[in-house]
Amino acid sequence: MIKEITSKQEWRAVLQQVDSFDFYHTFDYHNISHNPDIEQPILLTYTSNDVIIALPLLLRVIPNTKYFDFTSIYGYAGPLSKNVTSSFDNDNYISALQSYFYMKNVVSVFSRLHPYFNLQNNILSHFGEIVPLGKVVNIDITLTLDESRSLYQKSLKNQVNKLRKSCKVRKAKNEEDISEFVEIYNENMKRLNAEENYFFKTEYFTNFTKQSDFKTDILLVEELESGKIIAGSMFVKTNGFVQFHLSGTRTDYLRLGPSKLFLDEMRNEATTEKFKYFNLGGGKGSSNDTLFEFKASFSKDFRVFNIWKYIVNKNIYNELVSKAKSENKDFFPSYRAN
């Protein structure tokens, strides 16, 4: 009932069949973002009559055991579907997944869900726990440029106007531009005392721009007077979605707020190119903090961000937790918290 898909050709064929997908669901994103030493990308595909459900996950061995668990790639993933409605009866799907998980010696499953795919909750209902973590901000780029800009906070409009007089936005066009963006991004992460997994080598960013499953634009903000690049961001475009992915601002130019400019520029471009959603994401750790407030100054179109947690084998799960060096009940699975 559940088919494991690991090849690019088959993975892409399934994505072409489902109703919609984002770059987080693609083979290419999984291929360049997973840790090959400990993670294996798998697209778990369920087919029944005319219904298709495809769930991308990363399979991991649990160290020093014969067991495994699943997690999702960084970003917004979760199940994709075809011919699933809000009245979908998921009993057969749950049964098929449970059988598969037991067969694979899987102890637990975790996935971040996609805030724009509402049917994910129906697909996973009464199967583990769906937990809302916070809100994300969408700029409605189906509106005209004037209409979406009219929803900006007044102070934001003034700041963008001022920035356009002192700075310009351009796309990264070579490896030198990408290297400068990486330098800015890493400076930003160091300033925020980010965890190690938020730092990437230049190769990772270069790889992003070379993938065929999605298109990546790196927008750079250049100060006109000095010609210095002071901020930049990656935007990933797929299938009607524009995702605000990774960004940074040079510490010396934080007071200017140049990130407002590259977001406004991408709003213009995405509207012109007739994309449907421009997701800015949420706050740090999905909380309604100053980062969320900044994003909310562009739009009040909020979507709920959920995560899905499922314990397949409670006895083994509890046994693993009891052997863990430390337990963090807010972390899932808690046996991996140390």
Give an account of the 3D structure.
It is a single chain. Strands 1, 2, 3, 4, 5, 6, 7, 8, 9, 10, 11, 12 and 13 form a 13-stranded mixed beta sheet that branches. The longest helix has 17 residues. Helix content is 33%, strand content 30%. A hairpin with a 2-residue loop joins strand 2 and strand 3. The chain is globular. With 338 residues, the protein is an alpha+beta fold. The chain is built from 11 helices and 13 strands.
Q: What descriptors fit this protein?
A:
338 residues, alpha+beta, Aminopeptidase, 2 domains, 13-stranded mixed beta sheet, 11 helices, 13 strands, 33% helix, globular
The overall pLDDT average reads 95
Assigned CATH class of the largest domain: Alpha Beta
Number of domains: 2
CATH topology of the largest domain: Aminopeptidase
**Radius of gyration (Å):** 21 Å
The amount of helix comes to: 25-40%
CATH superfamily of the largest domain: Gcn5-related N-acetyltransferase (GNAT)
Shape: globular
CATH architecture of the largest domain: 3-Layer(aba) Sandwich
Largest sheet: 13 strands, mixed
| Contiguous helical run count | 11
Structural class: alpha+beta
Strand and helix order: EHHEEEEHEHEHHEHHEEEHEHEH
